[in-house]
């Protein structure tokens, strides 16, 4: 485990060639759904990252905002029906909203999980992320004995989940190719990339001179207390010596405890207190990394400049830089719309104090629901 910010920067950035891979191993024939950027290693990861990164440019992401906005409209309709001051688990509602956004922008379909919580897409997604005993065992094997999965060709997801996503994707691609339907989503971008080797989109509607100012501090402080993942792992690809003389041998696994660093009072006094102003001055390098850092930082973190005017309908905010992240685009959109129309209060049903994270899942997720009372303004 490495907690010194200087050494964190060395592992994740300056000596990336020694720590370029995560510890996961992928058998694409046994587990085709594992063949993605988070798990891939070596040249396969580099090739895919280089191909996909241009799809996350600010212009292409703004081009897709129309599909996000459709999901925001659905969320707004749900809030209008539920804004009666009664206790509501906002975690479940936001999970359904997120599923709709992912399905629409990522798969090119509209399951409308917000209107239909029992939709097939929502049920499959819930099953995929459910911290049941089988999924927990798979997570344990991935993190501790990844080669065991390879040797015994163990399937990491059920045949039901595997078949659903593969069949859905094949059907969508066939439909697009056979009908010529064009939709503003990643499927369209990937099709063009595969068939033409490059992606061209009509930017007439999005090349507008939009100027705005925003304050990122609230967002940054939230992600400090509750980062996307609590830790990062890397595998040492060749022997490496740290500045203090410690040798990390090839094949050893290195853990970077993000949550621990984010809540270390040495770098963030009163770490559990919500204090956005603490980011008026930049944090120490290597102490704040909610999306990872270095060449393997989350691809969804790439800049989405000037999306906020679209999300907020022209609302101007005061503050610093103008960079947005695709991973936050859907969140920014739904918050901007909701806070204009509704008042949110914490319900007495919530336990007082810090939100407890679920120890059974790899991402930062509350152990219990988050209950709110919603009123129309």
UniProtKB/TrEMBL annotation:
<keyword id="KW-0479">Metal-binding</keyword>
<dbReference type="InterPro" id="IPR050476">
    <property type="entry name" value="Insect_CytP450_Detox"/>
</dbReference>
<dbReference type="Pfam" id="PF00067">
    <property type="entry name" value="p450"/>
</dbReference>
<dbReference type="InterPro" id="IPR002402">
    <property type="entry name" value="Cyt_P450_E_grp-II"/>
</dbReference>
<dbReference type="GO" id="GO:0005506">
    <property type="term" value="F:iron ion binding"/>
</dbReference>
<dbReference type="InterPro" id="IPR001128">
    <property type="entry name" value="Cyt_P450"/>
</dbReference>
<keyword id="KW-0472">Membrane</keyword>
<protein>
    <recommendedName>
        <fullName>Cytochrome P450</fullName>
    </recommendedName>
</protein>
<dbReference type="GO" id="GO:0020037">
    <property type="term" value="F:heme binding"/>
</dbReference>
<dbReference type="GO" id="GO:0004497">
    <property type="term" value="F:monooxygenase activity"/>
</dbReference>
<keyword id="KW-0560">Oxidoreductase</keyword>
<dbReference type="GO" id="GO:0016705">
    <property type="term" value="F:oxidoreductase activity, acting on paired donors, with incorporation or reduction of molecular oxygen"/>
</dbReference>
<keyword id="KW-0408">Iron</keyword>
<dbReference type="InterPro" id="IPR017972">
    <property type="entry name" value="Cyt_P450_CS"/>
</dbReference>
<keyword id="KW-0503">Monooxygenase</keyword>
<dbReference type="GO" id="GO:0005789">
    <property type="term" value="C:endoplasmic reticulum membrane"/>
</dbReference>
<dbReference type="InterPro" id="IPR036396">
    <property type="entry name" value="Cyt_P450_sf"/>
</dbReference>
<keyword id="KW-0256">Endoplasmic reticulum</keyword>
<keyword id="KW-0349">Heme</keyword>
<comment type="similarity">
    <text>Belongs to the cytochrome P450 family.</text>
</comment>
<feature type="binding site" description="axial binding residue">
    <location>
        <position position="298"/>
    </location>
    <ligand>
        <name>heme</name>
    </ligand>
</feature>
<keyword id="KW-0492">Microsome</keyword>
